[in-house]
Design brief:
The complex is a heterodimer. Chain A contains 7 helices and 7 strands. By secondary structure, chain A is α+β, with helices and mostly antiparallel strands. In chain B, the strands form 3 sheets. In chain B, strands 2-1-3-4-5 form a 5-stranded parallel beta sheet, sandwiched between helices. A 5-stranded antiparallel beta sheet of chain B has the order 9-8-7-6-13, covered by helices on one side. A 3-stranded antiparallel beta sheet of chain B has the order 10-12-11. In chain B, β6 and β7 form a beta hairpin. Classes of the chains: A alpha+beta, B alpha/beta. Chains A and B meet through α3, α4, α5 and α6 of A and α1 and α8 of B.
Chain lengths: ~300, ~240
């Protein structure tokens, strides 16, 4: 509809011209003959101005349409993300009561019998419980205020790294942590300590899960005065190109992630946490070479 | 077996009461069931159970409102709330409205039994529980639960909000072994993969600020391999 209106508007000058011409030839008004004279210099200047004006008008129109289009696209994307969150929240609500009931039922049966089947069901119900816990985290992140304090990034990274080293997978991999010392160590940043710790933990946990023995995992950090950047890099199998844009989506599992335990919410959670801190979380990956996740957090929140 | 504690279990979801009631019976309690807050209040008035376990989200009268009515009428019966939304706000509400404890759904039924036993042990019949007091004290340590402020020997202390919430939970559950997992669930509301360490960091902060020596604790004792316990005796403060 709008497009039609624009084209119609473009015809207005012609229509005005036609109306004037009809009115004048019918002698409704005096219709004198005008002789316009100009030297070539002035004429070429006038023609130049006319063409430029026309081009600029056309360009402005085009840019406006483009802008509107992009605007509506962002809106649609944001709307889709919000819808997805709302859906996950409802799912979480619907899961809670049945899982509570199942756990109580299982506790009843476990009084009488213990079998492999039972412990397997127990394990699966635990898995579901963890999923609802993660869904709840995701929902809470949207609403609850950050508990900001001065976070010492060096000691935070040290803590997460130590925790990773205790994992059985860590033994067969080359894990390193590089923190700047010169000319000064990392600055403290204003943020929620427990949440930032969770992000780095998630990234390192992924690196451990998706690499193979003898792979290298590097955790390194830098600062540029305004932000602290933390990278978790590995020489693992890498993320296939077609999966890469989707890794941040809730419950998305790439081809290579099937068969690897996890809720499928870790990266979505991490992204939400970093964004709440006004930072950026990005990924680069090459199939067969490895992956690097990079988190940037502003020093002043 | 006549002295089995009598418990009222309130939840509108029959799948939960059908499964949970027999489990609690087996765990040594006598269990009655109600399906909403109004029915629960009637049963409390009629049969005076020793403890109420109540879901928050229920039709007619929800758990929060039922608890508020109980407390307003001066009834100090121990109440454990089953929270569902799981938001930090709902946990704070549970304590503010005077619940003795709360669990996030879905919970481990064995944890519920542990909570029931602890609450019953702490209960002083006819007296308001610590959980309903707005100001509590252990020796010269005073905690105001409404304003979230803390004083030690009259000097106000500054704590991070998490450490404050942690101290509040420990002080309202004195002399009770609380596992790190339970503290995470009750205070953080989330299960963290880095969980136990997250708790230890905050406990260390508390001890530093309170000047509490872990080898000779006045307030917080470490139970090796299990969790923490608030060892000071806690009273309602004026």
């Amino acid at each position: 509809m709008r497009r039609l209106a624009i084209w119609a508007a473009a015809l207005i000058p012609v229509l005005v011209g036609v109306a004037a011409s009809v009115a004048l030839t019918l002698n409704l008004f005096p219709n004198p003959i005008l002789y316009l004279r100009a030297d070539l210099g002035t004429l070429s200047l006038l023609i130049g101005i006319a063409i430029s004006t026309l081009l600029m008008l056309a360009l402005a129109g085009w840019l406006w349409t483009e802008y509107r289009h992009r605007e509506s696209l962002t809106q649609t994307t944001a709307q889709a993300a919000a819808d997805r969150r709302r859906f996950l929240q409802r799912l979480d609500h619907e899961l809670k009561n049945p899982i509570t009931a199942i756990r109580a039922g299982l506790a009843n049966i476990s009084h009488n019998a213990a079998s492999e089947t039972l412990s397997s069901i127990n394990a699966q119900v635990h898995r579901l419980s963890r999923l609802t816990a993660d869904l709840r985290k995701l929902a809470e992140l949207e609403t609850r205020p950050l508990e900001r304090s001065e976070v010492n990034m060096s000691s935070l990274l040290g803590q997460v790294f130590e925790l990773a080293q205790e994992r059985p997978e860590a033994e067969a991999r080359h894990l390193t942590l590089t923190l700047p010392q010169a000319p000064w160590p990392l600055p403290t940043i204003s943020g929620d300590h427990d949440l930032i710790l969770l992000v780095v933990h998630n990234l390192l946990d992924n690196a451990l899960k998706f690499t193979r023995p003898n792979d290298t995992i590097e955790v390194r950090a830098f600062e540029d005065g305004a932000a602290v950047a933390v990278e978790v890099a590995d020489t693992g199998p890498g993320i296939p190109e077609e999966d890469l844009p989707h890794v941040w989506e809730e419950l998305y599992r790439g081809q290579s992630a099937r068969g690897v335990p996890g809720s499928g919410l870790g990266l979505a959670l991490s992204q939400a946490i970093v964004q709440r801190h006004g930072g950026r979380l990005t990924v680069r990956s090459r199939a067969g070479q490895g992956t690097v996740f990079s988190m940037q957090l502003p020093v002043k929140g | 077996m006549a002295d089995k504690p009598r418990i009222l279990l309130v939840d509108d979801e029959s799948a939960i009461t059908d499964n949970l009631a027999p489990f609690l019976e087996r765990s040594g309690f006598t269990v009655a069931v109600a399906a909403d807050g109004e029915a629960a209040l009637k049963q409390v008035a009629a049969s005076a159970p020793e403890l109420v376990i109540m879901d928050v989200m229920m039709p007619i009268v929800d758990g929060r409102e039922a608890l508020r009515r109980l407390r307003r009428s001066g009834n100090w019966i121990p109440v454990i709330l089953l929270t569902q939304v799981g938001e930090a706000g709902e946990r704070a509400m549970a304590l503010e409205e005077g619940a003795d404890d709360y669990l996030n759904k879905p919970f481990d039924p064995h944890e519920l039994v542990a909570r029931i036993r602890a609450v019953l042990r702490r209960a002083r019949p006819g007296q308001p529980p610590l959980a309903t007091a707005s100001r509590i004290a252990s020796g010269d340590l005073v905690l105001d639960r409404t304003s979230h402020r803390i004083w030690l020997s009259g000097v106000e202390l500054t704590l991070t909000p998490k450490a404050n919430a942690l101290l509040e939970y420990l002080m309202t559950h004195p002399d009770e072994l609380i596992t790190r997992e339970r503290l995470l669930d009750a205070v953080w509301g989330w299960e963290y993969p880095t969980g136990t360490r997250t708790v230890d960091t905050r406990i260390a902060e508390l001890r530093r600020v309170l000047g509490d020596d872990p080898s000779e604790p006045r307030f917080i004792e470490t139970v090796p391999g299990q969790g923490y316990r608030f060892v000071g005796s806690v009273e309602v403060a004026a």
